[in-house]
Amino acid sequence: MRCSPVYEFHDVGVCNFSQVAGELQKFGGGTSWNLMVIPFLGNPEAEAFEKFAMQILEWKKEGHCLYLHGYRHKADLSLKRSLPGRLALRLTNFEAEFAGLSKSDSEMLLRKALQAWQKLNAGEAQGFVAPAWYDSKMLFNLCRELGFENYSSRFIIWNKSKGSRFSLPFSTAGLPECVIPIVNFCEKIYLRIYGIFGFLPVPRIVKHP
Q: What is the pLDDT of residues 120-135, one digit of tens each?
């Protein structure tokens, strides 16, 4: 079954939500986005928190899907990690928050993320995506146990009722400026190809603030 291309905005937080809102306006109102929200608030001023919470609710009313995107999106360096997990931290500037963690530590972080999410009064998160897409089957199973309806990894999108589909993400995050036009060109070409051959991996258009 053909799936529509997926549009995602990652790393949405209390420090950049105004910028994200402006970017979404530029793309127009005809597209439903999956918004990957970092729930950790730190100690923002009361006004900033209220504006962020109101913006989250406004996005929800506009039909955008709200995903939980880790807890802090920065790794807690006090937690023990496997060697591949420690390497992932180096590769992602310590953003691979869940990389190499034990099941108990992963569950602890997930519950902290859910507690922080509740403070936004935005209802249930509609899905989960690990920061920097560094996840594991164990993390996926934990998210299913906690009741998430959707889950995304780097090359897989999963829905509770529809199952899993392969996905091809197009993201320019962290790339040199000279490479970005090439990625954007490939994105446009692939969208056209996918419009003809819908059995291919689902294109995922990923933006960052």
A: 999 999 999 999 999 9
